[in-house]
Design a protein that fits this description.
Blueprint lengths: L1 H19 L11 H4 L1 H6 L6 H4 L11 E4 L3 E5 L5 E4 L1 H10 L7 H4 L1 E2 L7 E2 L5 E9 L1 H5 L8 H20 L5 E7 L4 E10 L1 E7 L2 H4 L3 H4 L11 E7 L13 E2 L8 E2 L8 E6 L10 H30 L3 H31 L1 H17 L2 H7 L2 H26 L5 H6 L3 H8 L4 H20 L3 H18 L7 H9 L8 H7 L5 H9 L3 H9 L1 H16 L1 H25 L14 E6 L3 E4 L2 E3 L2 E3 H7 L11 H8 L13 E6 L11 E3 L5 E8 L17 E5 H11 L11 E2 L1
Parallel strand pairs: 12-22
Antiparallel strand pairs: 1-2, 1-6, 2-3, 3-10, 4-9, 5-9, 6-8, 7-8, 9-10, 10-11, 13-14, 13-19, 15-16, 17-18, 18-21, 19-20, 20-21
Helix pairs in contact: 11-12, 11-13, 11-15, 11-19, 15-19, 15-25, 17-18, 18-22
The structure holds arginine (ARG) and aspartic acid (ASP).
């Protein structure tokens, strides 16, 4: 009887476990048929796995791109029109912006294809196919091979695989490890390089709520921008040319006007960057208790300084908005992440799991041999990693990542000085100078010396306060001693002396750079500091960090294997690794805290409620107010209001921005762009109660294009389902 009950109980846990965790996970498109499609259909999905991913017929994957490396985009017309987030196209919009043509502030709409703006350096990548190549990657592997030998073999196998996968195709290929290296998949890709900006709403729509609302629900951001992919006449990738023509995709997403209701099936298909769901408790402890707190402190300071400067002058706002957004984004996420980990008790839960695992390991000699050492070894490695990680990350915050910017900029000239010292030939030097001047041009375009001085004083002071003296670079200590730690007292003198804080002086210095300049360079206060800090890290921090991370990598693989063997009835999804993945679940509200329940969607009404011309982030454009007042909504409504954003429980992360959000019929209903703060720890631990992805309702994008921008002609090329 007892046994029978046990069997039933075991069966139930096995049957129920995957179902309970069903909405969590970022799944491999190639394996949907095997692992996911049944469940997806139970949840309401009406199409097949082949409609999502196939190499034999046109399918959704043919309309999805990795956009510029960090985001996702999707094709929404037979003429290569593509939608992604405003924050993903931000860099491009900014590059085309000046005080005369301030597209960030006013928006940009090409009224014909001739007016679309090219973006040198931007590319988008389509996936052609995926293949499990684990066997070929492991070919020649013998038990007992040492780590280096294994790595060498794996690398050489991989380069063979990618070569033979692409010969004569014009495609590129990568092989990526999954489950910490237990399995390997090949991705064959096609990249397009002529990508033009078609449209972007003003920031007061595309970035509405700004940093104030970032990572938060309820949200009202019209976070989208439009681009068009161009190809050669053969529909193949080509460098920018006026003769290129709009790319004809094998598939483009039809757009649904039907909208979403709570409980509806949704899926997100895109390029999540990285997650760490299977790490030990020590890792969570490091992130939550060591790394995040220190990083939060220094970024808080930097953001404060930039914000104050941006409020003083429109030019500074243009110059610093992208920089600030860049550092504020992770900053705010870390705060939410630490809180989420605390709330979920993730460390305790992981410890509990580790205890159970240990019992299971110790119960069997063979397992003991295979896995017995993992957790003790983790403990030892993380003890070192905690410290080295902080030193490296914090130093970076000071000397790079928009800390003391003139100091980090100074390092760029090192290569030129080396050329001169080594008597390199004239041509080489000339080319190097041209490149440096170009680097300088784009650096100074977004540089304000008064702001940089404030940043300098702040971060230099913090470097001395937050890192133990043994982790401070010698040149820094000298400087600190020279001013008795009062950086404010020397800041003017330093900025007068350096050539790296003024464009004209920098240009003159580079243009005339010769042997005599090298001596002068060595006396530059910022150059000496920048080089010394870098050398200091290279000698004292980086090697140890590399060693620990190498050891961790091996251990992670063993730990993953142990977890998979321990819970052999469970279907594991691999951590995100910037490859195409599918997440699915349902549209769903959540309890933010006791008594506070958030519903699943927001509307234009909420934008009007937030309107406040005195607050930059909430300054609603007049035109939008007029449209609201006159109720000129067109067909873009639900219950009489224009929907703006909605949430669902799809498991997403950074990189998923711009991903298509797709309904049960395979139609586009939204564009993913963020997550709700309460559940943002999902990169480390997904919280079914609160992890929510935030999407722009596609009808809001259409409303803005049509009614606000008067670019309704673009809608004609889309496939819109009423
Ligand atoms: N938090 C979102 C993501 O990680 C959106 C960032 C852009 N928006 C912003 N207000 N900074 O990318
Ligand atoms: N906003 C993120 C992105 O840009 C998405 C996220 O982290 O949820 O990819």
């Amino acid at each position: 009887m007892k046994n029978k009950l046990l069997t039933i109980w075991l069966l139930l846990t096995i049957l129920l476990a995957p179902a309970l965790r069903a909405d969590e996970g970022m799944w491999i498109p190639l394996l949907i048929e095997k692992y996911n499609i049944k469940l997806m259909q139970e949840k309401g999905f009406k199409l097949t796995a082949e409609d999502i991913y196939s190499v034999n017929k046109a399918c959704m994957k043919d309309a999805i791109v990795q956009f510029g490396g960090g985001c996702t985009g999707e094709v929404i017309s037979p003429d290569g029109l593509m939608i992604t987030n405003h924050h993903c196209g931000y860099g491009q919009i900014q590059k085309h912006s000046s005080l005369e043509h301030d597209y960030l502030t006013n928006g940009f709409w090409a009224m014909s294809q001739e007016e679309e703006l090219p973006n040198p350096g931007l590319s988008v990548t389509f996936l052609k196919r995926i293949e499990d190549v684990t066997e070929s990657v492991m070919k020649g592997m013998i038990d007992g091979m040492d780590g280096n030998e294994r790595d060498k073999l794996v690398n050489s196998n991989i380069s063979g695989i990618t070569k033979s996968a692409t010969v004569g195709t014009g495609y590129s290929a990568v092989v990526r490890p999954f489950y910490m290296g237990k399995q390997y998949f090949l991705f064959v890709n096609e990249s397009f390089r002529d990508i033009r900006l078609v449209g972007a709403p003003p920031s007061s729509i595309g970035k509405f709520g700004g940093e104030t609302d970032n990572w938060l629900w309820p949200r009202h951001t019209g976070d989208f921008s439009l681009f068009r992919i161009y190809a050669g006449k053969d529909n193949k990738p080509a460098e920018f040319s006026k003769d290129n023509v709009p790319y004809k995709p094998a598939f483009h997403f039809p757009i649904s006007l039907k909208g979403v209701n709570e409980g509806d099936f949704t899926m997100v298909f895109g390029y999540p960057g990285s997650t760490s769901e299977y790490v030990p408790s020590y890792h969570i402890d490091m992130v939550k208790n060591f790394l995040n707190p220190k990083m939060i402190v220094i970024r808080t300071k930097k953001i404060e300084i930039m914000e104050a400067a941006m409020n003083t002058e429109p030019l500074i706002r243009i110059q610093y908005s992208a920089k600030k957004a860049g550092i504020a984004n992770s900053w705010k996420k870390w705060i939410g992440e630490s809180q989420g980990l605390e709330k979920m008790g993730t460390i305790e839960k992981k410890k509990e799991f580790e205890n159970k695992l240990t019992v299971w390991i110790t119960a069997d000699n063979a397992r003991m041999l295979k896995y017995g050492n993992i957790l003790p070894k983790y403990k030892e490695l993380y003890a070192g990693l905690d410290e080295y990680n902080i030193v490296s990350s914090f130093t970076n915050e000071v000397f790079s990542n928009n800390g003391a910017e003139a100091v980090s900029f100074a390092r760029n000239i090192k290569a030129l000085a080396e050329l001169i010292k080594n008597n390199a030939d004239e041509d080489k030097i000339k080319v190097m100078k041209i490149n440096l001047l170009e680097t300088g041009r784009s650096f100074f375009q977004n540089y304000n010396i008064a702001t940089d001085k404030k940043l300098f004083v702040a971060v230099m002071t913090m470097y001395g306060e937050y890192l133990d003296i043994k982790w401070q670079a010698p040149e820094y200590i000298k400087l600190k001693n020279s001013c008795k730690g009062n950086f404010l007292s020397i800041v003017e003198k330093l900025y007068k002396k350096t050539v790296f804080a003024d464009e004209a002086r920098f240009n003159a210095f580079v243009t005339g750079f010769n042997e005599a300049s090298v001596a002068k360079l060595n006396k530059d206060p910022f150059y000496g500091l920048a080089v010394n800090v870098n050398d200091f890290l290279t000698e004292n921090v980086r090697p140890e960090l590399v060693r620990i991370n190498d050891d961790l990598q091996k251990l992670n693989k063993e730990y993953m294997a142990a977890q998979m063997e321990f819970e052999s009835g469970k279907i594991f999804y691999p951590d995100a690794n910037s490859t195409l993945r599918l997440s699915y679940g349902t549209v769903k509200g959540y309890f933010s805290k006791d008594a506070v329940y958030y519903t699943h969607y927001t509307t234009l009404k909420g934008i009007m409620e937030k309107d406040n011309p005195d607050i930059y982030d909430y300054d609603v454009p007049d035109k939008l107010k007029e449209l609201y007042k006159s109720k000129d909504f067109g067909p873009y409504t639900q219950n009489g209001e224009v929907p703006v954003c909605f949430i669902a429980n799809n498991h997403t992360t950074g990189g998923n921005s711009g991903s298509p959000v797709i309904n049960a019929d395979g139609q586009l209903i939204g564009v993913n762009f963020d997550r709700a703060w309460e559940g943002v720890a999902s990169d480390l631990a997904y919280n079914p109660e609160q992890s929510r992805n935030i999407s722009l309702d596609i009808r809001y994008a259409l409303f803005i294009i049509d009614k606000f921008a008067g670019a309704g002609y673009l809608l004609k090329e889309m496939t819109i389902i009423e």
